[in-house]
Automatic annotation (TrEMBL):
Keywords, comma-separated and alphabetical: DNA-binding
Name of the featured protein: DNA-binding transcriptional ArsR family regulator
Gene3D superfamilies xref list: Winged helix-like DNA-binding domain superfamily/Winged helix DNA-binding domain (1.10.10.10)
Lineage, top ranks: Bacteria, Pseudomonadati, Bacteroidota, Sphingobacteriia, Sphingobacteriales
Residues covered by the HTH arsR-type domain: 1-89
Length: 103
């Protein structure tokens, strides 16, 4: 299976909304699709991308398929953003030190 880039997956607002919906509650595919004003095939394409990047797992329960969030892949996004948070915290600390000296 192709491993997609988690950054590309979360770049799309529809996919972010899908993640948000299933992060709080597993949903069957039809119930999930009912939340969007796009075609079911379009929702299915978004679900496929989220599955391929590991943010979503589909589990069969009887005759229905349920989407379940697996947000561990978002750690990659957190790690990437953390370097910039640290950068800006250092810059703001330096600015604070400078302003304290200017008093």
């Amino acid at each position: 299976m192709l491993q997609r880039d988690v950054f590309k997956a979360i770049a799309d607002p529809t996919r972010r909304e899908i993640i948000n919906l299933i992060a709080h509650n597993n949903m069957n595919l039809n119930a999930l699709a009912d939340n969007f004003d796009i075609s079911r095939p379009a929702v299915s394409k978004h679900i496929k991308i989220l599955t391929e990047c590991g943010l979503l797992v589909i589990k069969q329960q009887g005759r229905e398929r349920f989407c379940q969030a697996d947000l561990r892949q978002l750690q990659e996004v957190t790690d990437w953003a953390e370097q910039y948070r640290q950068f800006w915290m250092q810059k703001l600390d330096a600015l604070g030190d400078f302003l304290d000296k200017e008093k």
